Amino acid sequence: xxxxxxxxxxxxxxxxxxxxxxxxxxxxxxxxxxxxxxxxxxxxxxxxxxxxxxxxxxxxxxxxxxxxxxxxxxxxxxxxxxxxxxxxxxxxxxxxxxxxxxxxxxxxxxxxxxxxxxxxxxxxxxxxxxxxxxxxxxxxxxxxxxxxxxxxxxxxxxxxxxxxxxxxxxxxxxxxxxxxxxxxxxxxxxxxxxxxxxxxxxxxxxxxxxxxxxxxxxxxxxxxxxxxxxxxxxxxxxxxxxxxxxxxxxxxxxxxxxxxxxxxxxxxxxxxxxxxxxxxxxxxxxxxxxxxxxxxxxxxxxxxxxxxxxxxxxxxxxxxxxxxxxxxxxxxxxxxxxxxxxxxxxxxxxxxxxxxxxxxxxxxxxxxxxxxxxxxxxxxxxxxxxxxxxxxxxxxxxxxxxxxxxxxxxxxxxxxxxxxxxxxxxxxxxxxxxxxxxxxxxxxxxxxxxxxxxxxxxxxxxxxxxxxxxxxxxxxxxxxxxxxxxxxxxxxxxxxxxxxxxxxxxxxxxxxxxxxxxxxxxxxxxxxxxxxxxxxxxxxxxxxxxxxxxxxxxxxxxxxxxxxxxxxxxxxxxxxxxxxxxxxxxxxxxxxxxxxxxxxxxxxxxxxxxxxxxxxxxxxxxxxxxxxxxxxxxxxxxxxxxxxxxxxxxxxxxxxxxxxxxxxxxxxxxxxxxxxxxxxxxxxxxxxxxxxxxxxxxxxxxxxxxxxxxxxxxxx
Amino acid sequence: xxxxxxxxxxxxxxxxxxxxxxxxxxxxxxxxxxxxxxxxxxxxxxxxxxxxxxxxxxxxxxxxxxxxxxxxxxxxxxxxxxxxxxxxxxxxxxxxxxxxxxxxxxxxxxxxxxxxxxxxxxxxxxxxxxxxxxxxxxxxxxxxxxxxxxxxx
Lengths: 716, 153
Prior knowledge:
The complex is a heterodimer. Chain A is of the alpha+beta class.
């Protein structure tokens, strides 16, 4: 188990906090009466008219939880999908540990949600059976109705009141996959209609009566503080209502976002700064420190056999250094939160991946108890791990506290978002492989050096699982190699870091799968056959507390290669490259990229991805995650954050260029049919496009690229 | 400073704000039309795209003054009920992921198809060259534009 998952478990993302018990809501929602509505658990409420409200305990950020999770409940309850309404859970007694991250949303809720639906179904059946005076086994359910043996038929709504009086079944039977009517079928995104008409409400779209808007003037260097400033000129800007000091800087409160931005610009011109501890931070200095750490002491993440001895005895040693830069999340919706203080407490609206922690942190800032802060989880305009942080929602609470009065929305602009991201840190990788006299791979050593994301996340504390967290994707190298050493050397860095879609697996699998390609070519072997041979006849392989089912990995590798036509004759200048990984040992994916490099110009034509994530709950959503994960991974071929004088050099989408419409290759997805429990799909596709494309560039040109980002110069 | 008039989604609106205010903030903060999104404020992400006299423009780069007396259509005004061919194609291809950037894509797609009812792949690339979708909906955007092709009057 890796550090992040330890963390997620500690904070409850594994779904341990989900409640399944018979309980009636104390306060019915408007239009409902507690007496008539059937609410057998925290996830669902059945109304007398037969409509059903399903409460989703995970945050929607494009990964499809507001579709996939309700489908699991609706399937077991045999609901009419057109009568389902989906709402977001709020942190509180029913939902004590909501967190969305680690590609765990489906896997952690799959069983509780199906059980919740099955229990409700059994209770509705029992209510009908009692009314008809027939046996329970003579009743069946279909699309919101219970059917009896003599052609009787009652809608769920009509049975709600009677069902609510029945005992909750302890262990309701779950359907067999062959009985599924909704699960495993292609269901369009629940929020699609609201999105295409502009009605979907994201955090930034929250509008409350009397709402004001605020922008915070922060030091360009993270952690810096204003020393002197002159509020008068900012206050003179039309629409500006107040300038207040908050822990992160100076907040300009106005009656519109634009006035807040204008006031902030005026204030910036009068402000001097104490730039703080990070003021001299630079990428060049960090790289020098990381390079030194490639040969110094390190923490072990994996050890099998004696790699140093095997390298010393090898007939041939290959060595290479790989480099992956800092990255930003660059969500299209900038960070924001809206806070309304009242005598009773506070109400907070924000797109957060960590509702309970956001609630707790805001409460602490306001001197309130968590239950005095009502937190509304808004739709998220891109999360990618950024919104696991509570910095932006806590800051909004501080602004509301300092400014007083009615609701205030704190809006970050694009530059704020880049400069004060919780970045993904840069790493250097030293890889060595020892080949025996027959060209077989006898030893593998992978050293990773860079700042620790986990330490930053743990408030500066070193976690016992730090090395395995930072080496995730490297320590769990799935190939059968007699001697393996994977270790991590920490290098200090002064700015805050955070989880980024695909986490450390992205740089580590980039280095691992590209270097393995180098070794295959050095051995004179085909990269596909070389991998298949190394995966060999292994079964389930254990790496510490993690494990991977190697036959499942082989299967995706073979499926992707077959679909992509591995080994076929290609036009001049074209090349195929591949990469594979068992993500957290739970989701198996392989990708083949076809690229061409003609006159120094790279075109990525197609990426073929085969995945085995267990049972495919919603294949339409799964394919969207593959397409999106590949776009996210491909972007990181071209993007980087660099630091100079404590500041990010990049501040927008022009100097941090994610892939756009014309850059996007064709994507082909092969889903391996599986009856295993579903795992995750948010992150597993992300790490593979980088090595697949770089290996394809090598196949096309003979040029091995080991340093990202990829620039025109890399291909010249 | 005199109030400024413009037509938004078929309604004449009178706005009392500085003429240099970007149309984006007039729509979102003054008129409460939050379907038009703020992504970058630099004119390079396309999330704020609206139609000005039928042409796709970035509302973060269009001042209120420039919009004065003109006709603005936002995603909320594209159709009454989501029945615009582009909106229907977007649903049919299940394009959106998080959905935040999608109103901008949809407005650019509608303007493209009005201008060029049967766009080529390179027309599509060009029409969305200034758009960013960090979720990576691009393959489905392409399919949806092709599905809607010929249907936009």
